[in-house]
From TrEMBL:
Coiled coil: none annotated. It comes from the Eukaryota. Pfam families: F-box, FBA_3. It comes from Hibiscus sabdariffa. This is F-box domain-containing protein.
Amino acid sequence: MASSLSLPQNTITDILSRLPLKSLTRFKSVSKHWADLTSNPAFIAAHLRRSSADPYLLIRRYHSQSGWDYGIWLITDPTLNFGTQLLRIPLEDSLPRFPKIAGSADGLVCLDISPCYASDFVMWNPGTKQFKHLPLPLITSSRENPIWMVFHGFGFDSFNNDYKLVRIVSFRGNDASPFLRVEVYSWREGVWKEIEERFELALLCGGQDGVVVDGSLNWAAIGLQRFSDRKVVVSFDMGREVFKTVPLPPVTRYGNVKVVSYMGLLAVAVYPLVYAANGNNMNRFEFWVLSDCEDGTKRWTNLVVVENFSKSLVPVGTWRDRELVFKYMGVRDRENQSSIFLFDPVDQRTRSLAIDCVDFCFEGFSYVESLVPVN
């Protein structure tokens, strides 16, 4: 019988690049040649291109009131509850608290394991089970200059073929207005660096992580000065390492805003505030996408308007970059009522997910299996 190694090398590479990560990990022990092949950057990139077509849903949840019953789950098909897997978190037994997910990109998951101020991170590949404790950030809090808030985001910089973790640190100024310092961790270089780049006319909103859209990290913010009649998006270009401020439609002034990626474009879901101090609260859901015009400019396009929208439904992200993920925050009317929904903005079809998160804080991220190393 002919050996499989008698096949052309391109054929062997093509066959192996189609296999799931679990099989590739097992096949590494078949021969040194296969082990070297599956560690080759070109092969890793080929395998990633195939696996990226069918992303999984990575879920972080914990019980809202007790803070316990927490975990990070990987779900291959949320609509069927197929292949649900509770992941073993690196260093879990020694962590001061349940880690946050700073971001997920190409099979790498960045965990915030710090007790506060997003000051300690781990790079983790759940598929290969590799992890790396990153160097501590350069920007720290002190008694003379205490940190007020920290925002972060993690994504792939295609321009430099690098993965970057961005940390925006806000300090309370003497005039009660915050001032910022920004630092970036490079996966390729393995070090943090502080950058001088800043953004203006915006005040970042708390409780959010950066959303990756076409090589940029994006955060919702309150507009200032000429943008005071609306919210804005603060966008950080990971390749050029510069910020820009993108004004949102005026309707965002009266509702909550969730920044998402939709079909590779920057998009925002606008939904009702639970409480509105001035009474100017919208009672509808709107979905806007920043699309390209023929003259090369960009324009916000309203894809969906749902009147009399429930305050109990909160958008938490997108799955497969096509469907919005909603969490139901209200009291269940019946025992088997679903708490997580998928909504397609094109045909406005809604699907329930077989995941019980009614009493849980829930965060969802796209995840693909890959051989991308943590170093």
